[in-house]
Structure prediction request, 654 residues.
Amino acid sequence: MLKLGVIGTNWISKMFVDAAEATQAYTLTSVYSRREASGREFSESAAIYTDLEAFFTSGIDVVYIASPNSLHFQQVAQAIEHDVQVIVEKSAFSNPKEFEKIYSILREHPTVHLFEAARHIHQDNFKAIEAQVADMDVISGATFVYEKYSSRFDAYLAGEEPNVLTRTFSAGALTDLGVYPIYAIVKLFGLPEDVYYFATKLANGADGRGTAILRYADFDITAQFGKMANSYQRSEILGRKDTILIDNIAELGDVTYVDADGKSVEISTTAPENPMMAEAQVFADIINDPDAHTDEYEELFMLSQRVNMVLTQLRQSAGIEFPADHA
Amino acid sequence: MLKLGVIGTNWISKMFVDAAEATQAYTLTSVYSRREASGREFSESAAIYTDLEAFFTSGIDVVYIASPNSLHFQQVAQAIEHDVQVIVEKSAFSNPKEFEKIYSILREHPTVHLFEAARHIHQDNFKAIEAQVADMDVISGATFVYEKYSSRFDAYLAGEEPNVLTRTFSAGALTDLGVYPIYAIVKLFGLPEDVYYFATKLANGADGRGTAILRYADFDITAQFGKMANSYQRSEILGRKDTILIDNIAELGDVTYVDADGKSVEISTTAPENPMMAEAQVFADIINDPDAHTDEYEELFMLSQRVNMVLTQLRQSAGIEFPADHA
Prediction:
């Protein structure tokens, strides 16, 4: 049983702990929170730490980090230094410079694994998409959409600076929501040859929504995402005459294949109630038997690095700088 | 009753003649076709001409031109020289140079009107979209999609060079299908500040599909169109929390407004059986009483010129040249 520590006490940490415990591979033992009360509210039984050093030396095997993006780098580095396995929410790091530094630290702690919690790519319905794509004769293009009005945008309009819409926290539409479609695209199609990001910037310089174009040798892919409007579009992968339709690239509730004759077949199965269970299981399997999963881990790690590169290139193409870029 | 001549004997000419006659403002009198037999097949009662000069001096008041795009310029010029009113299928001209020359000729024939047959923007359901857009507090972005696999792409794959996928005819996905979303966008939102076109080019250099980005001061708009794959996406205009959904930006069968609370209201009415009737009526009204419609005509003419500019800028951004650009 892996002793699990958690940084961040919001809804996504709660969901991950539920998923982790449901796999029966983890047990929550430690919670780090800036405020003791928030930690206690999060868990009645775990030990609560307001000091990060004490948290990392509390005997945990693995930490799940869901703090604001800009804090990931320092917290992940500290975890690795303590030989604690790391699961960090996406986007993992602000830029390739941070990723490189983490890589160097990992080299000195060869037993530690670093996982980016891209939950959707581990789900059965994502694997159904991968199998269908592999089975299609031609890919002509694709559109991935993840755009939903956020209550945090109400806060922005009211004059506040919510974390998820502030460059100080390495946040914005691309790194918070765009990371879902970008992860899916890079997992399915590899590194693009060229990328462009058309961002609608807020007064504070963060991106509220945007459209990214990822160019491949034979086709282009569009990703549309944002927090300041409601899109009802599906995601879609275009073959020659056939098409894959995906209701939501993050939630993956319904995936349908429409063949060349226009006949629809659902290729998805009922999505698990907790969408983080699949990734929690994958990470536990690798941690518990690393030698049997060398290739799988390597692939995930490389994917994480590629996504980090693509996100940064997109951001640069839109002229969006994070303070972390100049750290 | 306007005496109508037609150039081009394909399905779209047939549809226009049906629409024109249904308005009871036109009567078909002359058909130009390279082959007499095609002309006779098109109409049993009209006079058939295989010589363009004879066609234009046959006493017609107005000509509807649905020849390949690259032939429009010469045929329109000739029509104006004969003081024949002109309705030309979209895309009207290959580039702004052609448009300018036509404008000069029009100045010498002040009674002649030039109409581009952008049928969708004249429909009631398009006006419903315009009214809804005008009523929305904020526009955050939009996506317009018109992408359908064409049997002509089968021909291309079989080694042929179909007109609609050949630069020699100033054709391709943008000028043949993209013109629908681009027309809608420029009519609704005016001239963009900046445009980008990501085209998937065929071996012959024509665009088989593509994604265009039109940037405005406060938002970006995406247009997706093509002839080499099947998209099932709707078109969509994003407000703040509210959204307009359009089943098909060319056909405009169903337009729905989803308000900030997620409540849907259909704002479209049953589309007319013949989608070209609305434009045929508008053009006849202007021709029959020009003084009462000066502003309306001016607006349509300016819109046509703007669309011509935007299409050309998009094409240039993708490095797609037409032979007509060097004429």
The mean pLDDT of chain B is 97. Chain B touches chain A through 37 residues (CB under 8 Å). The longest strand of chain B covers residues 207-215. Residues 294-317 of chain B form the longest helix (24 residues).
